[in-house]
Specification:
- The protein is mainly β and 477 residues long.
- 5% of the residues lie in helices and 41% in strands.
- The chain has 4 helices and 31 strands.
- A hairpin with a 2-residue loop joins strand 7 and strand 8.
- The chain starts with a helix and ends in a 5-residue tail after the last strand.
- The N terminus is likely disordered.
Amino acid sequence: MKSHAKSRLRAAAAAAVTVALGCTALAAVPATANAAGEPIAVQYRTSASGATADQSEPWLKVRNTGSGSVQLSDVKVRYYFKGDAVGEVYRFACSWAVKGCGNITGTFGTLAHPTATADRYLEIGFTSGAGSLAPGADTGDMQLRFYRSNWQPLTQSDDYSFGAGSTAYGDWSKVTAQLGGATVWGTAPEGNDPTDPTDPTDPTDPGEDGPALFDDFNYSGHSDPQIAAHGWSVRSNAGGPGVPGATWAPDKVTFATQSGNSIMNLETSTAGSGESTKQTEILTQSMKFRNGTYAARVKFDDAPKSGPDGDHLVQTFFTINDLKAPMADDYAEYDFEYLPNGGWGESGNILYTTSWETYRPDPWEAVNQHTESRQSYAGWHDLVVTIDNNAITYYIDGQLFGTHGAAYLPERGMSINFNQWLIDLAGQTSTTPRAYDQQVDYVLHVKDQVLTPAQVNAKVAAYRTAGTTFQDTVPAG
């Protein structure tokens, strides 16, 4: 995809992007806990109640049972089921929803600890367009369904979350709901709570598994001396990627506390000219990271927080090193890149994961492999990429997203980076000022170890339980 590949000119300009992932240490609570003031409840019914069916139809409502407003983009609901065959592929669809099907996402994941009634889950999320729920309000009908990709009948009588008798909406504790990464509703199949830090097969001691970098981004501002002391650089130097004439603005990298966690915010703004465009980036000063696990929890946004929408925005997490010469074989780069408004020849939402072997800037030539998904990824997402001696593997929200081959493995160390920037000004030509946010909860790298997404969650929870906001034991070089 040549138009996409041209973004790699940023490497020559010393640009950067990174990783982040998140979870909290709260365990799942049963449905009755809402009487004690839990913030949300989930109601369920099914219109396909047979033991077997051509598709499963979990219809859901999310209800705000707390005293404050709930942003739906912070909510994830999981429906657990037993796969019908090894390696079976499932498809998600939304038939109708009060909030609009375009504001609802559905992704599939596999459980770290399969049970007799569940080895997979369907996770329902919301884009920013779904808005918020006031106290006492609910989403209204979400008429959802999923089916086997070959349209063979599926068995749902052995599915953990299925209720054959639930033909009218009612509170249902066999689905779980997370708010801001913490499980606040329902009970998952045994041993599979999305945020359970005590699973015995997961690492619980943040120092026991070898060298690691963890940062909770608990800083006072972009000029906090601890940022540099912890090995980060907030970019201010000129150059690509992005709109010619744009400025990389350190003061647009800010920090705040949300739901008890420290959050880093990258703001990118423009008024329709290169000179008015402010982009943001933070990267490690050292290129000492190579094989192992990289993870981050990142919030993507489809719309600006102010002003007209439509800019060709790129929101990222990646690792990278420098291109020493055109087509140099020791170059490496591994990306998560989300384009909420298209760009690089795309007209709508698209997320790429890309593994790079090398490239030539002029004339352009690239050697890479990518995986893509054309749907909205607005809201919080857990991003994980693992690199061993055989492959590069990408996960989003616990689900395998793409695997890239051994030809793209790194030969030397890389930096870890996050940035947000504009490809061009063609997507929105207005001179009205607008600004976009990308948020990061945390970043984790574990050297030379391949962790599952569940193990990543447990390790982050262990750091937070221990009160550790930063650790870097990864050796230089």
